[in-house]
Specification:
Blueprint: H1 5-18, H2 20-26, H3 34-37, H4 43-76, H5 81-90, H6 111-117, E1 122-127, E2 134-142, E3 145-147, H7 152-165, E4 172-175, E5 180-190, H8 208-219, E6 225-227, H9 228-236, E7 241-252, E8 254-255, E9 260-261, E10 265-266, E11 270-272, E12 278-280, E13 286-289
Parallel strand pairs: 2-4, 5-12, 5-13
Antiparallel strand pairs: 1-2, 2-3, 5-7, 6-11, 7-10, 8-9
Length: 290
């Protein structure tokens, strides 16, 4: 871990001040404080500052390099959860694997074809709490919106890919669900000079609260924790919003046993989507009051 610049400078100035020859030359007492003997604008202080800063920056670089190496090792180590996520994002639709490897044959393919073939844009992997089963959540993207895979050819290719690369004996479950539905009931205290009774901006005829909610959902990490307090904070930062009260929040997700959405369940503080991502079903339950 990188030392602070002050620590580095201290480790240089301490032996400097403890040197008897330097003490005689500069006329200071051996072991006295560097800061008490040399001003901030002295040549000696400036030189120590420059060297300390250079060493500090190098140590930061070394820390970052070590972090990247460790992350890469974790992502490349077969059988680990980060490895499964890496392999999900590496999937290439329409390409075949090289022999008994987990690498695709890209010979003769253009960079554009390779990029287009990587249809899994989001993935999160964890282990089931009650077993050693690995849960792999995946999603694609259409026009900037997260979506599940409905093309049967794509679904079969993805499932076959994981069967071929997975560690023997490891049960996998691939979660390829439509977005969890998010139901919100809110009341917005508005500035009547800025927003009308429908939440429309008087200035530009936009709907800034709705835009803020959409932006919040887009900023939420895939398989990230939806925190209701953060959602309210986002809305309260909208120009024209004086206060925001969240009366109720619920979510519903795909139940594979019934092949559709289950009943909405309350969200009290936070929630991670079963599919990995949410979709707000309607903005009609937002009331604007003065």
């Amino acid at each position: 871990m990188a030392r602070t610049k002050a620590q580095i400078k201290s480790e240089m100035t301490t032996p400097f001040m403890a040197n008897a020859d330097l003490a005689a030359k500069y006329d200071f007492a051996v072991g006295s404080s560097f800061d008490s003997e040399f001003s901030l604008v002295s040549l000696e202080n400036i030189l120590f500052e420059i060297v300390a800063l250079a060493i500090y920056i190098h140590e930061l670089f070394f820390d970052q390099h070590a972090k990247e190496v460790n992350e890469r090792l974790a992502n490349e180590m077969p059988g680990t959860l980060p490895w499964y996520r890496t392999m999900a994002l590496r999937f290439q639709f329409g390409f075949h694997l090289l022999g008994d490897t987990d690498k695709f044959d890209n010979s003769g393919a253009t960079a554009e074809q390779i990029a287009t073939s990587k249809i899994i844009k989001y993935s999160a992997v964890n282990e089931a709490s009650d077993s050693t089963r690995v849960i792999i959540k995946i999603a694609g993207e259409e026009n900037g919106v997260l979506t599940n895979f409905t093309d049967e050819t794509q679904v079969q290719a993805i499932e076959n890919y994981f069967k071929r690369i997975k560690i023997a004996g490891t049960p996998l479950t691939i979660i390829n669900y439509r977005a969890d539905q998010l139901y919100l009931s809110m009341q917005i205290k508005r500035d009547a000079l800025v927003l009308d009774q429908n939440g429309m901006s008087i200035l530009d005829a936009g709907y800034p609260v709705i835009d803020a909610l959409k932006e919040f959902m887009k900023e939420l990490d895939f398989n990230g924790e939806l925190r209701l307090s953060a959602l309210v904070d986002k809305i309260q930062a909208v120009p024209g919003v004086l206060d925001a009260t969240l009366f109720n929040a619920q979510s519903a997700w795909i139940n594979p046993d019934i092949g559709g959405y289950g009943d909405p369940q309350p969200i009290y503080i936070s929630k991670i989507a079963e599919s990995g991502y949410f979709e707000i079903t309607s903005f009609n339950n937002i009331a604007y009051v003065v």
